[in-house]
Amino acid sequence: MSSENGQTAGRGAADHVDAVIVGAGFAGLYMLHRLRDKLGLKAEVIEAATGVGGTWFWNRYPGARCDIQSVHYSYAFSEELQQEWTWSEKYAAQPEILSYLNFVADRFDLRRSISLGTRVTAATFDEASNSWDVETDRGRRLRARYVISAVGCLSAGHVPSFPGVEAFAGKTYHTGRWPVEGVDFTGQRVGIIGTGSTAIQTIPFIAQQASHLTVFQRSATYATPLGNTPSDPAEGGDGPGEAATRLAMEWESWAGVPFPRIRPSGKGVSAEERTAWFEECWAQGGFALWGGSYADLLFDPELNEAAAEFIRAKIKQKVRDPAVAELLTPRGIPYGTKRPVCETGFYETFNRDNVTLVDIKAAPIVEITATGLRTAAATHELDSLIFATGFDAFTGALFAMNIRGRGGKRLQDHWGEGPRNYLGLSIHGFPNLFTITGPFSPSVLFNMPRGIEQHCDWIADSIAAMERQNLASMEATAEAEAAWMAEVKAIADMTLFPTTDSWYLGANIPGKPRVFMVFLAGGKRYKEICDEVVADNYRGFALSPA
Ligand code: FAD
Ligand code: NAP
User: Fold this and answer.
1) Which atom of ligand 2 has the smallest separation from the CA of 68?
2) pLDDT tens digits for 333-370?
3) Which one, of 154, 302, 280, 296, lies nearest residue 224 by Cα?
4) How far is the CA of 64 from the centre of ligand 2 (A)?
5) Best mutation site among 193, 197, 446, 505 for ligand 2, i.e. most ligand atoms within 8 A of its Cβ?
6) Residue nearest to atom 35 of ligand 1 (CA)
7) Residue of 339, 342, 518 to test ligand 2 pocket, by largest number of atoms within 8 Å of CB
8) Which one of 99, 248, 286, 483 has the largest count of C-beta atoms within 10 Å of its C-beta?
9) Contact status, residue 411 vs residue 214, Cβ threshold 8 Å
10) Which atom of ligand 1 lies closest to the CA of 29?
11) 23: Cβ below 6 Å to ligand 1?
């Protein structure tokens, strides 16, 4: 129980700050800059990792890199920063993105306000003082008017509970917690579970090192070529004076990545013309086929199936063994309704003698043993086992923070039947808590640094308004939440997305309520709505005077 001076009975005194920001990835770093340096608030970042960078600190597996061009997958808030940093590749690799985020932390003198190696273990709203008590695993307590979650959509790793995993004598790894010192698989028999974005990036690298690599695949994936190259200044986008044009193009595009040549519709277009256009997009690389071919690709089942068939034919061409090619070929799910995946040498890796593909849909994993992995069909002897099994997306890291709102209600209980909020930013019953890229914002289906900046700006402006008007609290109303949930669902239901089991729906986590968690009308429309809410005196928020 808290008292008025911020002390908690029976525990140590709390440090008083205006805002606690949880997480030091793209989101936490910029949020700190906005609140501390632009608003003059006392703000502190708490970060579980021993360094800044978030995703790019933790995901050090070989082959990790972004699949949005680096000129777009970077901050835009500072033209000076843009001019001081040069990307060496079109799609930067993890070490370079991590260096960039460290450069940002130094460039804006952020480190002095960041506590590293510290995990937030509880955040409890105190109704008497309209502030939050934040506790850490280091026994520290903070009292803050505002808590801002920058914990990331994809930061809580998911390791399925296969029987016997603790008996395994070799080493196990989750790709999202890759050892800082790296791993040498030379001479080892390595197993990897999963064929999502992560596995598809790392498999070609592990295959080059391991004596044998066994890939355990449950679902085949549509992967298109990344087309990475060294940076080409002639391509432009980040030169002096180019920022405004680049930004405008990003915001004009649905996913925050410009594809100015996207065609409005593939309906009624001849098969030859479609294929020729798909071919051009394929050669362009990255998300071009998914986000830059036809605007109705994710709405029209027949057009979508044509794109799927196009990819299936490519897989057949790349993989020598027809049986392996068939196993790698996705069927029965629309293309692009799971997060699109980009590859470099993934399919060709299955032409190597030291790589085996195992179908764990037909013969599921039964157990992990001391010496390997047993499926319903065979036993595989392994020295190391990699879980490329993804994340408990959106809610995993929020729940792990043990957030309690009004009346001591736990967020887990409040969201027992699935998450709900307003604009992805604010939760009824949890005042003065803001969630950067929370569920039901464009988040993971928009260029993430761009969406993060928009959220941080909106939150900072809202906090500034609260301070100016001497408001004690701000929180979404239940009615606004209900209307937002209905709007997000109605938009999603117009598309093919909800027809596929994916982590967008929570379908990758056993028992997780099935709710489509992304606002799909695009970043531009979303930003307009956020701005309209402000212009309408924070429509849908309850604002309480001090
Ligand atoms: P994160 O970078 O996830 O940072 C969150 C931080 O919060 C973490 O460091 C975590 O340790 C910390 N944290 C969580 N809980 C606590 C707690 N209780 N206490 C203290 N600290 C806590 N997006 C794109 O748009 N394009 C891409 O190309 C792209 N590539 C990706 C590649 C990989 C391998 C992955 C996993 C994701 C990728 N993403 C990509 C999504 C990526 O997560 C975002 O682009 C972005 O990095 C998210 O930044 P963030 O700051 O919101 O969260
Ligand atoms: P993911 O896309 O969720 O893939 C997880 C893989 O593990 C899938 O193949 C899944 O199979 C498999 N799997 C999960 N649970 C399993 C189980 N119990 N038994 C057998 N197989 C199981 O996770 P991810 O690859 O880590 O990627 C997550 C997200 O991070 C991406 O979607 C993307 O947003 C981001 N990311 C981006 C990049 C990039 O290129 N920029 C790289 C990596 C990650 P099923 O499909 O059958 O569930």
Assistant:
1) 41
2) 999 999 999 999 999 999 999 999 999 999 999 999 99
3) 280
4) 13
5) 197
6) 55
7) 339
8) 286
9) no
10) 51
11) yes
Check whether 8 has a pLDDT greater than 60: no
- The pLDDT score that the predictor gives to residue 235 is 78
Q: Is the CB of 193 under 6 A from ligand 2?
A: yes
Count the neighbouring beta carbons within 10 Å of the beta carbon of residue 7: 14
d(CA 403, CA 438): 14
Q: Whose CA is nearest to atom 13 of ligand 2?
A: 389
CB 70 within 8 A of CB 231: yes
Does the Cβ of 427 fall within 6 Å of ligand 1?
no
User: Using CA positions, which residue lies closest to atom 18 of ligand 1?
Assistant: 120
Evaluate: CB of 392 within 6 angstroms of ligand 2. Answer: no
Q: How many residues in the chain? A: 546
Return the number of other C-beta atoms located less than 10 Å from residue 14's C-beta: 20
Q: Is the pLDDT of residue 288 over 70?
A: yes
If you average pLDDT over residues 50-54, what whole number do you get? 98
CA distances from 488 to 32, 321, 520, 530 (A): 29, 43, 7, 14
Q: What is the reported pLDDT for 242?
A: 86
Give 225-241 pLDDT, tens digit per residue: 999 999 987 777 778 88
Q: Specify the pLDDT at position 484.
A: 98
Q: Is the CB–ligand 2 distance for residue 489 below 6 Å?
A: no
pLDDT at position 11, please? Answer: 63
pLDDT at 9: 39
**Ligand 1 binding pocket includes 155 (Cβ within 6 Å):** yes
All structural domains of the chain with their residue ranges: 15-156+393-473+518-537, 165-387
Structure tokens at 211: 């004596």
Per-chain mean pLDDT for the chain? 96
3-class state of residue 287 by DSSP: coil
pLDDT digits 0-9 by tens, 72-104: 999 999 999 999 999 999 999 999 999 999 999
Mean pLDDT of 120-149: 98
CATH of the structural domain 15-156+393-473+518-537, one choice from 3.40.50.1110, 3.40.30.10, 3.50.50.60, 3.90.1110.10 = 3.50.50.60
Query: What pLDDT, on the 0 to 100 scale, is given for residue 4?
Result: 31
